[in-house]
Amino acid sequence: MRTAAPGRIPARRTWLPAFAAAAAFGLLDALPEFGGSGGREGALAVARELLPWLGWAALAPAVVAVAERVPLGRPPLARGIALHLAAGTLLSIVKLAMLLPVSRFLFGWSGQGTGLGEGLAWLLAHRLPGNVIMYLLFAVGATVLIEQRLAREQETSRARLAAELAESELRLLRAQLEPHFLFNALNAVAAFVRIDPPRAERMLSELGELLRLVLRASSAADVTLDEELAIVARYAEIQRMRFGDGFRLRTEADPETRSLRVPGILLQPLVENAVRYSGAGEVLVRARREHGVLVLSVANVASAPAAAGNGDGSGEAIGLANTRARLNRIYGGAATVTLREAGGHTVAEIRLPIVGSRTPEAG
């Protein structure tokens, strides 16, 4: 299937605006005739003024085609003007010849004994310069329409590319997070296959349920916070089996936040990051509403000093860096991700805008 060139106006869309403009210009030219002689002579005089403009409207696709190939106002200007003057002259001759039978009637040449050849010579001598000017007016109008259409197409193309980039980046981020988590979980299961088979079996069962939740979250643009917390809880249970009772996940989520929508697999990478630095210990996940913003935080009991950063992403784990990049792509500057030390804890905090009862959907 052939695609139209950028900014190209289909021929079928040129005639309506062209005839509307021709009628407007023609009636303006014919206004003085309304106050002149009436009757048949007056009608013929008005028609003689209106006909040249309507002729150009009929040739509008040809004018647009020239304007598309030789845009007015673009360098080199001298060459463009020369080409348009040549095209205007040629199309004017074609138009005058095309309207010659009607002109013969309007000017009454048959009663005067004037032949078609003589009539055409008269039209070229008296009407050619004016017709070239008419052509230039139509060419300017066509150029304006072409530039407007080109600007709209470019804006649409930019929006489409931005959406495709956002979707590609989201797929890439998920591709980085999900296998990373899966390999860690399988390594933990493998560690207990020989030394504690019952625990390995329980871990595999939990892992299967967790993967089901993760796959469901990955296929959706967003999930409820309650669904996201369920993923975190399953992940934490696997880690508790790995580290023993020394590891604990504590969740404090305001009831009104649990139905809010968040990007899928948002908290699990941050919890994993906290577990990586704290090892056996407690990870605290909190959720609250604050002045139209959903505030999510993940804190560990103890961490290496290098875990906290200045917010620019340097020295941070892939989970935190990917979360920041992902939220920036979805929300722009309306969402923030920070990492700080607070009371001996390392806290990763996410702030998301709330629109009504939902956060904006991903993509």
Q: From the alpha-carbon coordinates, what is the Rg to the nearest angstrom?
A: 37 Å
Helix content: 55-70%
- For the record, give the distance between the C-alpha atoms at the N and C termini, rounded to a whole number: 29 Å
Strand content: 5-15%
Order of helices and strands: HHHHHHHHEHEEHEEHEE
State the strand order across the main sheet: 2-4-5-7-6
Low-confidence spans:
303-315, 356-363
Task: Report what the structure shows.
The structure is a single chain. The protein is rod-shaped, with a radius of gyration of 37 Å. It is an alpha+beta fold. The longest helix has 78 residues, at 116-193. It has helices at residues 15-34, 39-58, 60-69, 77-98, 100-106, 109-112, 116-193, 197-218, 225-243, 268-278, 318-331; strands at 223-224, 248-253, 261-262, 282-290, 293-300, 336-342, 345-353. Residues 303-315 and 356-363 have low confidence and may be disordered. β6 and β7 (345-353) form a beta hairpin. α3 (60-69) crosses α7, α7 (116-193) packs antiparallel against α8 and α8 packs antiparallel against α9.
